[in-house]
Design a protein that fits this description.
- There is one protein chain.
- About 30% of the residues lie in helices and about 25% in strands.
- By secondary structure, it is α+β, with helices and mostly antiparallel strands.
- Strands 8-7-6-5-1-2-3-4-9-10 form a ten-stranded mixed sheet.
- The longest helix has 16 residues.
- The termini are close together.
């Protein structure tokens, strides 16, 4: 199981930005919805020659395969990836438990390595904003559909927990989620109470938030440098930037 350090930080910033409102925060790129058009645009962004060239370097970073020999390919369609919604944490009426944060496309190298390409619609159009090792997004999407067909699979990034929600229930999909809600899951109301208790005092306007601690989630994010796997953040601009900037920040993820 992996914890995506950069993803946790970005999600925390997104939570603060959304709750603070548009007047006080930079926009966070999002696909907004998983329409067929958005899926197609995300897939196209993931399959560009520039993206594939970056993937070749990504897969070759530890010497398991050469840059020339990596020959990355994109498998399947882009899927929506949802995270715990800030509106739900804040208790806004009618808020869904999760919202789509980005689209993910699965990349595979010639030697079998896997990575997730995160794509979002930015001010410049659809772009790849992150590359992360492994296949968490796709594996948990499949597991969630098996466990609760038609449910919403989502991640609580502050503790790297994956769930599926539906029918007023929230069920765990990994060990972190089991520790949070138990093996049998909880009601949607009980889950809302838990996340409100965990994060409600760290929202905009609180003393914690005013100290600039990413909404209070800095202490909950996984520690870097102690485990296996990498996340590459294509960083800049309003927090995430596309491949064209050429600045790759390699960050460790904990196991």
């Amino acid at each position: 199981m992996t914890a995506r350090v950069a993803a946790a930080a970005l999600a925390a910033a997104a939570l603060v930005a959304a709750l603070a409102g548009p007047a006080s925060a930079a926009p966070v790129p999002q696909p907004q919805s998983a329409t067929a058009e958005n899926r197609a645009a995300a897939h196209q962004a993931a399959a560009t020659p520039d993206t594939l060239a970056t993937l070749s370097r990504f897969f070759a970073r530890e010497g398991k395969v050469s840059v020339a020999g990596a020959r990355p390919r994109i498998e399947g369609d882009a899927i929506p990836v949802s995270y715990l919604a800030p509106e739900f944490v804040a208790g806004k009426a009618g808020a869904a438990v999760a919202r789509v944060e980005f689209m993910a496309s699965e990349a595979v190298s010639s030697d079998g390595q896997k990575a997730a390409l995160w794509t979002a619609r930015t001010g410049s159009g659809w772009e790849v904003v992150n590359i992360a090792t492994g296949d968490d997004e796709f594996r948990y999407a499949r597991l969630g559909e098996e466990k609760l067909p038609g449910g919403t699979v989502f991640r609580e990034p502050q503790i790297d927990a994956w769930y599926v929600a539906g029918g007023q229930r929230v069920l765990p999909l990994d060990e972190d989620a089991v520790r949070a809600v138990g093996p049998g899951g909880v009601s949607l109301g009980a889950y809302r109470a838990r996340v409100a208790a965990a994060y409600g005092d760290k929202l905009p306007g609180s003393a914690y938030a005013e100290r600039g601690l990413a909404g209070g989630f800095a202490s909950a994010a996984p520690a870097a440098g102690s485990g296996s796997g990498d996340t590459v953040v294509l960083a800049g601009g309003a927090g995430v930037l596309a491949l064209g900037a050429g600045v790759l920040l390699w960050r460790r993820r904990t196991a």
